[in-house]
Amino acid sequence: MIRYFRINDPYRLVGLLVLLLVIYLPMFIFDSRITAPELRDLVLGEKQNEGYRMYSGIIDSTAPLGAWATEILDSLFGRSILIRHILGFIIMFLQSAYIGLLYISKRVFTESTFIPSFLFALLFFFSWDTITLSNELLGSGFLLLALNNIFQEIEFRNEGDESVFNVGLCIGLASLFAFGFSVYLICSIVILALFTRSDLRKYLLIIFGFLLPHLLVISIAYVKGSTGDVWKYYYLPNLTFSEGGGLVSLKTLLTLAAIPLVYLVISLVMLNREARFSKYQSQILQASLLWLLFSFVFVAVARELRPQTLIVFFPGLSLLLTHFFLLIRRKKFVELNTWILFIGIVTVSYLARFDKIPAVDYSALLVNDSDQTFRGKRILVLGEDFRLYKENQLATPFLNWELSKPIFENPDYYDNVTRVYRAMKADPPEVIFDSNNLMAGFLARMPEFQNQYVRQGDSYIRVSN
């Protein structure tokens, strides 16, 4: 199989697309499940299309460009998960094609080959959720553009400033999809310091390129009078570790990634023993290893740990694994290892998808059907049970519970009561899910709404308009 992609022929990408369609098609047909991040994006997109602005109107920490993307997707496709998965598949294929063309144009290997494209796409299949059209997937494309400019700077050691500025700019744009991508700014500076003779001006330029998109966001917020909201609900939560958590366990991730990890270790051993590179190729390899190292940092600071979080490893892994396959001298061993890697990744992914691997637990990642009887209602959930929005719509702007909790836990503050009152006045929920009865303190201070809601079990039901 790998001999097909070893030839430098762009039409080999058509074969790669056919291969990907074959292995992904059952997922499109049989997998109608929705993940918690997908549901959040659906609700966020709906709320923005109702006229609510991010941060000043909606309490959530989603990055600005990511929020804008969810708004556009909701306008075009509504709550269609299938369309989003198809778009995610297309983006994944385009990134696979780009990584192959990038490595060829930068002469990263001893021969021009599309093996990196094949390996990059195959690594994506290690878990079924990686083609989720998420902010991380969208932002990772800008990281590939940054990587291109880093290689260009190493290759030519440009006297000009364009490539260095573009590195910072691309990472800055990526961080407006997922703020954790900011760690690659430090990575880029370290790479430039080790493998180029950049002066202070270039380091300042890369930092300025990174800050430029953020300065634009802050400037727009300033004009709209929402600078404080942007800081409070976007920058501050993403600079702390108080929110989020793992949607899958470390055991699940290690099980899913076991086969690629084995081949990573083997690749490192072979590269250490067998590889003979030019100085430039050696620098590219070392830069990719640093990129992999900082990918661990990104995973450590990620807001929600899930299999798709690991896609940041794929550019570096595809480079290392390509070196591994090119170093094997006997063709039969090349093909044998190719089929072991291919069949192993596909098999593990499908077995995990159909819950046949006990060590893999997707329960926290998936949004299962709620046992509530309410359907098609405008609701407010005062708690972590986000699955209730699967069959309902969000009323009021309180989307992110971690950020909204300080408001509802302190009804004695006038600003909190005023904010809740205005939100309910503009968009009154039909049902308020409130297991801790936090609304009691607010309803007591809002006579207009006190008689409109009746508590039933753990909820408040609106009985009067």
Structural features, described:
This protein has 20 helices and 7 strands. Helix 9 (183-195) packs antiparallel against helix 14. The chain has helices at residues 2-6, 12-30, 36-49, 64-77, 81-105, 115-124, 135-156, 162-175, 183-195, 200-223, 227-238, 250-256, 258-274, 279-301, 314-327, 331-353, 401-408, 414-426, 439-443, 447-450; strands spanning 245-246, 304-305, 378-381, 393-394, 431-433, 453-456, 459-462. The strands form 2 sheets. Strands 4-3-5-7-6 form a 5-stranded mixed beta sheet. A two-stranded parallel sheet has the order 1-2. Strand 6 and strand 7 form a beta hairpin. It is mainly alpha-helical and 465 residues long. Helices cover 62% and strands 5% of the residues. It is globular.
Structural class estimated from helices and strands: mainly alpha
Beta content comes to under 5%
Total helices: the number is 20
Shape: globular
Given as residue ranges, the uncertain stretches (5+ residues, pLDDT < 50) are none
Cα-to-Cα separation, first versus last residue:
66 Å
Number of beta strands: 7
> Biggest sheet, in brief?
5 strands, mixed
Query: Roughly how many Å is the radius of gyration?
Result: 24 Å
Order of helices and strands: HHHHHHHHHHHEHHHEHHEEHHEHHEE
Mean pLDDT: 89
Percent in helix: 55-70%
Features:
465 residues; mainly alpha; 5-stranded mixed β-sheet; two-stranded parallel ribbon
